[in-house]
Amino acid sequence: MDPGGLPELDRRIAGCRACPRLVDWREEVARTKRAAFADWTYWGRPVPGFGPPDARLLIVGLAPAAHGGNRTGRMFTGDRSGDVLYQALYDVGLASQPTSVHAGDGLEVYGVRVTSPVHCAPPANKPTPGERDTCRPWLVQELHLLRPTVRAALVLGAFGWQAALPAFAEAGWTVPRPRPAFAHGAHVTLPAADGPGLHLFGCFHVSQRNTFTGRLTPGMLREVLRTAAQAAGLPTRGGGAAPAETR
């Protein structure tokens, strides 16, 4: 494993050009911009994970938004999905503030790291299976670096769930056969032969489609976040830390 740890991994991710379609798209969006952000200098590169290297809870999304993470350079930052996620993290005591506007806004997350199986913004928010598989080694390396401390993972959406399960297996956890199905509130424990198991939780994605239609409400998101955080051994607002045996 790279001795530079997560900072070095993040630097390498930000320089990746492995998927020509994604490179062309993210850079085109950064050039043309959205009218509301005409005065921004877009990030326009792969977006690395966000959060401390000793995180106990990992949140796995889908991919950066074209005018969110691809603009700001931070996961779930600068778009409405991020507004929903960080508000909920703040509500349960896992973030320092309820908003995530730009990379220098002072936001901190407590014991949580936010990442995704695809690090570039894809056209129509739909990476191809090949792009997902090409990006997987980055997530596997991130998981290896987090293994000493991470105890739970919350995966947002079916795509993230399907993409993350092979990465968890490659990083040393045992994924049951048949693979567990995605569902909101799903919970399965992935054992490991050489260390603690991982509590894996499913949650509907914080997309506008889900939040605007009420498929995912703020209360539903807070509940699953709090459950996952407590399984990871993190204290939450409105709830205590997990029992010692889950740590």
UniProtKB/TrEMBL annotation:
SMART domains: UDG, UreE_C. InterPro entries: UDG_Type-4/5, UdgB-like, Uracil-DNA_glycosylase-like, Uracil-DNA_glycosylase-like_sf. Residues 48-225 form the Uracil-DNA glycosylase-like domain. Pfam families: UDG. Keywords: 4Fe-4S, DNA damage, DNA repair, Hydrolase, Iron, Iron-sulfur, Metal-binding. The keyword Hydrolase applies. Belongs to the uracil-DNA glycosylase (UDG) superfamily. Type 5 (UDGb) family. This is Type-5 uracil-DNA glycosylase. It comes from Streptomyces fimbriatus.
